[in-house]
Amino acid sequence: MGQHQSSKSYDQPRYNEVERRLYEGADGPATQQQQVKTALQQAKGRQQKRPHRNFLNAGDQELVSRMKSLELENQTLHKVVLKNKTALQRLEYRAAVLEKSPAPAAVLEKSPAPAAVLEKSPAPAAVPCANSYGAMSSILLDVKPWDDETDMAKLEECVRSVQMDGLLWGASKLVPVGYGIKKLQIGCVVEDDKVGIDILEEEITKFEDFVQSVDVAALNKI
Amino acid sequence: MPKEKAHVNVVIIGHVDSGKSTTTGHLLYKCGAIDQRRLEKFEKAAAQMGKSSFKFAWVLDKLKAERERGITIDISLLKFNTQKFTMTIIDAPGHRDFIKNMITGTSQADVAMLVVSAAKGEFEVGVSRSGQTREHALLAYTLGVKQIIVCVNKMDLTEPPYSQKRFDEVARGVSVFLRKIGYDPATVPFVPISGWTGENMITATQKMPWFQGWKVKRREGNASGKTLLEVLDSVQPPVRTINKPLRLPLQDVYKIGGVGTVPVGKIETGVLKPGMILTFSPAKLTAEVKSIEMHHQGLQMALPGHNVGFNIKNVAVKNLRRGDVAGNTQQDPPSDVSSFEAQVIILNHPGKIKAGYSPVLDCHTAHVTCRFAELKEKLDRRTGKKLEDQPQILVSGDAATIRLVPIKPMCVESFFTYPPLGRFAARDLKQTVAVGVIKSVEKNQGSKPAQKAQVCK
């Protein structure tokens, strides 16, 4: 999973970069830029030689206009190359994503070929990828009531009412402790940078009519 | 009734790219308590989509997706079985509260598993630089996790694949690194594996004929084998500290109609039986245990590791609280401390720490502000040798012996007598600023002997 995630997060910025360049009409990656430049220079060289031989007396104007048209042509060609390259990259990325972490089956059925997917989802951000924004942890909390008469449904409602950016409540169950007491065991997923466990405990224990204490039963990397 | 397997907690440490998730995923997948029906469903779906070759990766991803959405509780527990043990994996997250949780949490690590990548260049990046790996390994050692296992992962990605030379090179590098921390490499098994392809994980590989197997020399006896699973089966289970006096830090105290007062907590050492006279500290109360229950079932004897509730006579709920420690009045009863001496490591403090600094200490279930009364000695983190007497300041990364004074009554013990009550995390600015182990305690002599509890009517 680690490998997969890293490749994903590696591709993302590169892809964005390429896309940005494409839309801004700017130059491609450095190597390509150089290739194009040398090609341009060669073309220029040929252009310069030929007019010198054949149209020596025709004046500079024609030369300049031809140069311009050639440069224009070169630029459009350049754009086409870039476009193709981006498309290829996009295709490769998409293929890699599909191979490694197949999107929900529904998406696949709707789109028989990766190309079709490309048409539908121009940005790879559309690929379900909840964790592209930072490391996440899975936490299992034990939330304990005051006595055997605490309304556990209400307690759970209170816990779930805690909302924070980067916090997602998951499954829960009641676990018997003894003497009729049950504790609420509830899972959640947090983004490491956004949700501190202290804050989470603090927010939950604010419901002091229901909650006696909160313990972390498990804390793991996702 | 079949004998219950001993429980072992394994904390996984390693660099982000070491492939630890894939490795742990493989173990869970092959020996895990993952619901068989769900696995079959995933496998079928994978086959239908023509992903059979990527089946493992696909299932892992699917499980990861489930964990991301928190759908099932079982998966977030990361449990699996070996022949001898039930193991719980603690996959060390980058979360800032992880270290505190490792110290005070309910599942404290018994064994550390270090995963390093043998892939070209990755080992060097992962271990050689000052990364989390080093930090976590050092912490594990400091906090008393004395058993460590090394997985040399990604053997399929060495140049050439499954290279003995590379394995030896990595193993040598890790040995040096572990010796510096304090581990004895002779007691550490090194296993070449591939978490991705599964080589040497569950069954011995054919691809590394040069691998003669791992060997360890331990006081408890030598062990050897080939696969990672065998390594896990050879670890020393946590010592059952049944013979020690009882220590039971309270998590909660309930008032139950028709029953009375019911404190709940995990037994760290010793045994608890009905009829026993308990002393609670720092509450300074004594009471008799009437009955014990665990998961709604009555018990005649509760053992270390059990999370139990027990009914006590003649104590009002308000006289007890989380953080109190129960012990047997007849056998080394717990007592609050006036001060204690601890060896601490400063972790994330942005400034300078001087005598008088007062962070909140989390120790077992207690949560008490303590003053750094005296900075006694600055130490070398690795060797423990003294660097300086009476240092004026401490900064992040320093280790030191310190005398601490709790500002409220608190019950702690030395790490050597009762380990779970002898390690703590110091918190300040919503961070873990230091971790420590308690070397010695000054019991509160001035405190009156435990009084008979107030009668609750």
Describe the structure.
The complex is a heterodimer of chains A (222) and B (457). Chain A is built from 7 helices and 4 strands; from the N terminus they run αααααβαββαβ. The longest helix of chain A is centred in the middle third of the chain and has 41 residues, at 60-100. Among the domains of chain A are: 59-98; 136-221, Alpha-Beta Plaits, CATH 3.30.70.60. Chain A has helices spanning 2-24, 30-54, 60-100, 105-110, 114-120, 152-160, 197-205; strands at 136-144, 167-178, 181-191, 213-221. The model of chain A is unreliable at 1-9, 26-34, 47-56 and 102-132 (pLDDT under 50). In chain A, strand 2 and strand 3 (181-191) form a beta hairpin. Chain A is of the alpha+beta class. With 457 residues, chain B is an alpha+beta fold. Chain B has 3 domains: 6-233, Rossmann fold; 247-328, Elongation Factor Tu (Ef-tu), domain 3 (Beta Barrel); 336-443, Elongation Factor Tu (Ef-tu), domain 3 (Beta Barrel). In chain B, 21% of the residues lie in helices and 32% in strands. Chain B contains 9 helices and 23 strands. Chain B has helices at residues 20-31, 36-48, 55-69, 73-77, 98-104, 122-128, 132-142, 164-181, 228-233; strands at 6-14, 79-81, 85-91, 111-117, 147-153, 190-192, 214-216, 223-225, 248-256, 260-266, 277-281, 285-294, 297-299, 307-312, 325-328, 337-346, 360-363, 366-379, 386-389, 399-406, 423-428, 431-443, 451-452. In chain B, strand 12 (285-294) and strand 13 (297-299) form a beta hairpin. Chains A and B meet through helix 1, strand 1, strand 2, strand 3 and helix 7 of A and helix 1, helix 3, helix 4, strand 3 and helix 5 of B.
Tally of discrete structural domains of chain B: 3
Structural class of chain B: alpha+beta
Oligomer: heterodimer
| Largest beta sheet: strand ordering of chain B | 2-3-1-4-5-6
Give the strand order, joined by hyphens, for the main sheet of chain A.
2-3-1-4
CATH topology of the largest domain in chain B: Rossmann fold
Catalytic activity (chain B): GTP + H2O = GDP + phosphate + H(+)
InterPro entries (chain B): EFTu-like_2, G_TR_CS, GTP-eEF1A_C, P-loop_NTPase, T_Tr_GTP-bd_dom, TRAFAC_GTPase_members, Transl_B-barrel_sf, Transl_elong_EF1A/Init_IF2_C
Domain Tr-type G (chain B): 5-240
Protein name (chain B): Elongation factor 1-alpha
